[in-house]
């Protein structure tokens, strides 16, 4: 069984997808982490964000997601890059390189293979896949599809509360407001780029359940997805 969870940054996808997978004992696939690793490879190699550069780079790249006790670890050519891909700069890089067709083709193939291999080895299990194009492109036949949304302000606040992503603990109300403005602007810019690209833009699949998480708790989000899984099982 495949559960697809898509939506913009900060909509609660990652936490929801990870917890649903934990509750079911299934595989969790964080596809954004893959695009982040590719973005890092472009930056490390000083490549321009072009299709030609992508065609040269991607076939030789080794991007791996390794589920671990503290969450998914991401390896790029054998190096653990988990911490380095969680910066605002890495978010921006990921969004830019993910618009390139050769990058998407390679990552989609990896995602399908990972899910296929897992289900082949765990016939009663399933995969919870999180991203932007999972229900539309990667697994259009997914058994359960969710599209998570939330107000920009709520999403920016969540990002800021996450130390690894937001600017380091701003001091005082003015600094908090300035940091919030910055995160809000970064999220809006990334959404705009993800929604407007030609290949696999961020959008809800026609058969996805749209869930507005602005006023929901994580538990409520997790329960909504688990209910949908129970209904189709
Ligand atoms: O989900 P996360 O914020 O880690 O994703 C980082 C970036 O990777 C997104 O802004 C988006 O541009 C890209 N992405 C994508 N398709 C996916 C997952 C992520 O284009 N399935």
Automatic annotation (TrEMBL):
InterPro entries given in the database record: Cytidylate_kin (IPR003136), Cytidylate_kinase_dom (IPR011994), P-loop_NTPase (IPR027417)
- Which keywords appear in this protein's UniProt record, sorted alphabetically? ATP-binding, Cytoplasm, Kinase, Nucleotide-binding, Transferase
| Uppermost EC category | transferase
GO terms for biological process, alphabetical: pyrimidine nucleotide metabolic process
Which cellular components does GO assign to this protein? cytoplasm
Q: What Gene3D superfamilies does the record tag this protein with?
A: P-loop containing nucleotide triphosphate hydrolases
Task: Report the EC code(s) recorded for this entry.
Answer: 2.7.4.25
Localization in the cell: Cytoplasm
Q: Which intervals hold domain Cytidylate kinase?
A: 3-230
Q: Name one Pfam family in it.
A: Cytidylate_kin
Span-the-membrane segments of this chain are none
Q: Which reaction does it catalyse?
A: CMP + ATP = CDP + ADP; dCMP + ATP = dCDP + ADP
Q: Where is the signal peptide?
A: none
Q: Which CDD domains match?
A: CMPK
Question: Where is ATP annotated to bind?
Answer: 7-15
Q: What GO MF annotations does this protein's record show? A: ATP binding; CMP kinase activity; dCMP kinase activity
Q: Does the keyword Transferase apply?
A: yes
| Family (UniProt) | Belongs to the cytidylate kinase family. Type 1 subfamily.
Query: What protein is this chain from?
Result: Cytidylate kinase
Q: Which organism is it from?
A: Rubrivirga marina
Species lineage, top-down? Answer: Bacteria, Pseudomonadati, Rhodothermota, Rhodothermia, Rhodothermales
